Structures are given as structure tokens and as C-alpha cells.
Amino acid sequence: MQTPGRGGREGRGAPVAAAAAAILALLPAAATATLSQAPRAELQNGSAADPPAPATAALPLPSDTVLGVTFLDVGQGDAVLLQAPEGQTALVDAGRGDIVPLLREMGVERIDLLVATHPHADHIGGMAGVIRSMPVRFYMDNGQAHSTATYRRLMTTLDERPEITYLEAVPRTISLGSAEIEVLPLLPTGTTDHNNRSVALVVRFGEFRALLSGDSEVRQLTHLVGLGVVPVVTVLKAPHHGSDNGVTAEFLAAARPEVVVISVGRNGYGHPRPAALRAFAGAGATVLRTDVEGHVAILGRRDGGYGVARGEQVASARGSGAGRTGAGDGTGAAAGDAIIGAGTASAGSAAAASHGLRLRVHADAPGDDNRNPNGEYAVLENSRGSDLSIAGWTLCDAANHCFRFPRGAVLAAGGQVVVHTGSGQGDGIRYFMGRGRAVWNNNGDTATLTDAAGATVLVFRY
Ligand SMILES: [Zn+2]
Questions:
Q1: What is the CATH number of domain 352-461?
Q2: Is residue 372 within 8 Å of 366, Cβ to Cβ?
């Protein structure tokens, strides 16, 4: 159904719908000429007014060989940046607030395809700002209006930019450089709520696949599984911020993700929910969270392998090989785990770090270590601007002596916690493993910090 808010965009959408058949727009020269005034060269080199090829320059791995799928840390919300090997960019959702500075930091100066999965503020709040700040070629949504000021502002902004071509999210495949974006079928308008009409996308680059589906809940996931359109994927964006209504056993059995990325920040919904975390971990996936890691970039290779970059690595490690690549033989998840420590805690470093978290071990207690177990301790520091719940997290040595942080444990913003090996009264800053002998070897050991879902957060080797 046409809505008042979409009137202006329908006019632009009509010729696109007619041409929509197969490969749309972002690559073939002929189609591009039909759908946009922009010559193809602009996709790769920027327009005359723009600096050349900014997107390509900013990718964190040799950018002409990988598809970048970057889950931007936008707090509680979604914003996923796709960067094709040839430099084209798609942005799927734009968080709640202003993400333009973040995109600029990533070297993004133009968006070829902007997708609003559904019209909730944590997905479209930053979209008007993007449209006002940089060239956008195509805009896609599910065609469903919303009553909020945020939605109206987005529509007004789109109406001010008639050069942006509107695409409704009907099943079709869009080329983004040498990658492909397949739009999956939606439930009919008016049959369900906004979340369950999230635009769901399968992104393919050779054997590498990612599935993004906004805030889909059980109803939509069941629909997609029933249609048989859920492929086996390398990477899954956890639907609905890791809510327990954003996963089903059947959906996970179909998708079989090696990596699940949860786009989540501080929230009052309990996201991510323990049941969802258990489901992802139970499916054997490596779980990465933007509230723990910061930005998470998965760098997909044509052979299905991939690399992972996290936190500051994502913006800063340009072309340096940050993020070890996973093998193309299904061992990528293990490699993903290995990256966490390997990228930052090379031999001789004093601590392992991951997006504002630092872990170090003071292994050599004064005197006889075994008679002074509280003289050895591990320190976990949080240099981020927000508190972090570490309840249920574990800290283990190489011999699997583990300490589990108790219910309510919080690592305060800018603060630290200390885990002593011996016994004592914990106070929320100091914790005690309760052991009568030394745990940390003086001549080398491995400290592994694991979150409540069992995902490795940090590895410190010394
Ligand atoms: Zn949401």
C-alpha cells in the first residue's frame, strides 16, 4: 500500500521496479546508465568533487581482494557497512544517532546502496544525516511507513534528494562490485509488526556468505526457513540484537553460521539474552559483540575464508593484515578466536587488549608464590566510556584453573578489577579465586578471558 510518506519516492521507484529483474544497478554499465546519471567510473573513483577512491583506501585488509562486512559500534542499534573489493559501499541501517563521523573515520565518502531494514529509530535514526552528508545512489526499505518523527525526517530528507533512486525490498539480486546482495522475500504488509518485516539480505562473495536481517523475530525467521531461502552462511548478524525472540533452532540449523555478530549496546531489554547466547554458542559459532569488541569487521575472501578485525584495529589497521585470515575449509571460527589475542598480545607485550579492555597478569608474587597466593593476581582494565557487565565471565590459566565472576560483577568505565589467586573478601573491585597455591606460572602461561556465553574475549600470553 502506498503511504503518504512514500509518495515522492514511488515516482523514482517506478522505473527501477520495471528494470528490476535481475542484476540491478551498482555494477553493469548499461544498467547504471538507465538507473542513474552517474557513470560507472564514479563508483570506483569518486565523482569529480570527491577525493579519489576513499572507500578502497580505508579497508583494513588488502581491500581489492576481500568483501568487508563491518558491524559498526553504534551502541544499541544496527549499522553494517559493506565494502566491495572494487570499492563500492552499502550501508545497512545507520544506528540511532549521527554516524557520519564514524563513516568518515572509516574512509567512507559515498554510499552506493543505503538500506533501512525497518523504520525503528535504532536503525534509521542516523540515516537522514548520512543522506545530507554524502552522495547516496540507491535507497531501499520495506515500503512500510511509520508514524515517528524520526521516520518523517528521513522521508523529508529523501524527498529533498531526488537523485537518490528508491528501491523497494522485493526479492532481487543487486551487484555490489563483485559481491552480490540478495533481497529475501518479506511477509506481506499488514500481516505482522515492523520487526518481522525487516529487510533480510544474503551477501555473497564467492563462497563467503553473510546474512543480515535487522530485527527479525521468530515469525519472520520461521517464514524464511519455511521458504527454504536461508543459506548456510559464514557470518550471521544476530537478529534483533541477540534477543531470545531473534533465534530459532530451525533457523540456526539452516544458517549454520561460523561467526555470529551481535550489534548491541546498553539497553533495557536484556539484549543479548542468555538463551540466544547459549543457542549461538551451542551451534558452534564464534560470538562477537559490538558492546564488547567495539567495531567488528569480517573480511570475507572469495574462497570462503575470512579475517576478523575488532575495535581500533578496524579503523586503524589499513592494509596491514590485521585480523588473521581464516582457512577456507571450515576452520575459520577457530582462527577467529585466535585473532583476539594474537593481534594484540604478541611476544613481549605487557598486556592483551581488545577495544578498551586490557588484561595483564602479575605472576611472580613476593616471596614463595605458593605461600603467598594473593601476591599474584590478574588485572582487567576498562578504558571505555561505559560500564561493562562481567557477570558469568571466566578467567582461566593454561591448565584450566578458572575463576568465574559472580552475579552482578561490573567492570566500571575507566576502572579495573583485580583477581587474586588466594582467598579473601571480594568487594566488587578485588576478587579471589580461593586457591591455596599459585596458579600463574612465573615462566610463562596463558590467561584467557571468556564471556558469559563462552566466547573468548581476550587472550594474554606471557
Ligand atoms: Zn533494533
A1: 2.60.40.1260
A2: yes
